[in-house]
C-alpha cells in the first residue's frame, strides 16, 4: 500500500479554507493521476470527501493504458466512514456506483445505509474500538475485490491509523513551495493522531527525489511494514 500526499513547505496539508486542492501544482496532479493509473483502488477517509469535491478516476488515455495492462478501466474508489456521513452525490465526481466501495461499521442508521447503497457498494466491517479494523479492510479488498495494490490519498487521520498499524509500504510526498501557517487540528500534517508509540521504528528510506517547477517529489519506503503471513 502506498500513501500519496502534498504538503506545504511548513508541513501543512490543508489551506485555511480546509481544502487541499490548491496546494499542489498541475505537475503534482499529473503525478497523482499517474499513480492512480497504476493501482487497483484509491482509498480516502470521509472527512477528505466532506472537505471538497473530488474525482478519484483517471482520464480516458490512462484508462486505456490500464485496460491494456489488464486492469479495470478505473481504480475502485474506496471510502472509509464510521458515521456514514458521505456526500457521495455532491462531492464524489467520476466513478460510477459500480466503481465505488464504502467501508462502514455495523449499526450505521438504516436510512443512511439505504442512501449510500444507491450510490455505491457498501460493506460493513468489524470494528476495533469504534473504528473499522483497517487490517481487515485490506484483507477484504484483496479477497473480495482483487485489490493487490492500494493507493491511499489521505486524509491525515486515515493515514495515521494505517501507518500506526504498520500497513503502509511507501509514502509519496510532494513538497510544494508554499507556506500556509495555521495551527491545531484544523492544520494537520500528513499524519493526524497521538504521538506514535516509542519502541517501533517509524523511520523511512528515501527511494527517489525529483524536482520540477519548485516542487520536490519524494518517495519513501517505511521500515515498520508488518507483513501478514495470511495476506
Ligand atoms: N494535502 C493532501 O494531500 C491531502 C490529502 C487528503 C486530505 N487532505 C485534507 O485533509 C483533511 C481531512 O483529513 P482528516 O484527517 O480530517 O480526515 P480523513 O482522514 O480524510 O477522514 C477521517 C474520517 O474517515 C473515517 N475513518 C478513518 N479511519 C476510519 C476507520 N478506521 N474506521 C471508520 N472510519 C474511519 C471517519 O469518518 P466518519 O467521521 O464519517 O466516521 C473519520 O472521521 C481535509 O482538509 C482534506 O482537504 C489533504
UniProtKB/TrEMBL annotation:
InterPro entries tied to this protein: DHFR-like_dom_sf, RibDG_C, Riboflavin_Biosynth_HTPR
Molecular function terms, GO-annotated: 5-amino-6-(5-phosphoribosylamino)uracil reductase activity
Keyword tRNA-binding among UniProt keywords: no
Keywords (A to Z) from UniProt: NADP, Oxidoreductase
Protein origin, superkingdom: Bacteria
Domain Bacterial bifunctional deaminase-reductase C-terminal per the UniProt entry, residue ranges: 2-187
Pathway: Cofactor biosynthesis; riboflavin biosynthesis
Gene Ontology biological-process entries: riboflavin biosynthetic process
Keyword Oxidoreductase: yes
Protein's UniProt name: Bacterial bifunctional deaminase-reductase C-terminal domain-containing protein
Amino acid at each position: 500500500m502506498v500513501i500519496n500526499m502534498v504538503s506545504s513547505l511548513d508541513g501543512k496539508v490543508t489551506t485555511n479554507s480546509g481544502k487541499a486542492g490548491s496546494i499542489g501544482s498541475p505537475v503534482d496532479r499529473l503525478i497523482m493521476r499517474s499513480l492512480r493509473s497504476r493501482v487497483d483502488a484509491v482509498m480516502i477517509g470521509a472527512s477528505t470527501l466532506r472537505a471538497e469535491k473530488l474525482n478519484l478516476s483517471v482520464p480516458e488515455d490512462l484508462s486505456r493504458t490500464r485496460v491494456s495492462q489488464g486492469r479495470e478501466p478505473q481504480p475502485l474508489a474506496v471510502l472509509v466512514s464510521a458515521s456514514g456521513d458521505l456526500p457521495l452525490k455532491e462531492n464524489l465526481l467520476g466513478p460510477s456506483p459500480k466503481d465505488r466501495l464504502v467501508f462502514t461499521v455495523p449499526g450505521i442508521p438504516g436510512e443512511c445505509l439505504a442512501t449510500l447503497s444507491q450510490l455505491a457498494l457498501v460493506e460493513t466491517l468489524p470494528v476495533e474500538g469504534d473504528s473499522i479494523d483497517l487490517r481487515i479492510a485490506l484483507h477484504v479488498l484483496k479477497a473480495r475485490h482483487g485489490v493487490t495494490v492500494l493507493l491511499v490519498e489521505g486524509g491525515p487521520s486515515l493515514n495515521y491509523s494505517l501507518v500506526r498499524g504498520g500497513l503502509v509500504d511507501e509514502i509519496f510526498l510532494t513538497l510544494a513551495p508554499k507556506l500556509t501557517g495555521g495551527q491545531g487540528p484544523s492544520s494537520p500534517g500528513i499524519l493526524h493522531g497521538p504521538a506514535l508509540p516509542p519502541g517501533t521504528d517509524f523511520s523511512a528510506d528515501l527511494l527517489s527525489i525529483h524536482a520540477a517547477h519548485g516542487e520536490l517529489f519524494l518517495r519513501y519506503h517505511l521500515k515498520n511494514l508488518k507483513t501478514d503471513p495470511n495476506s
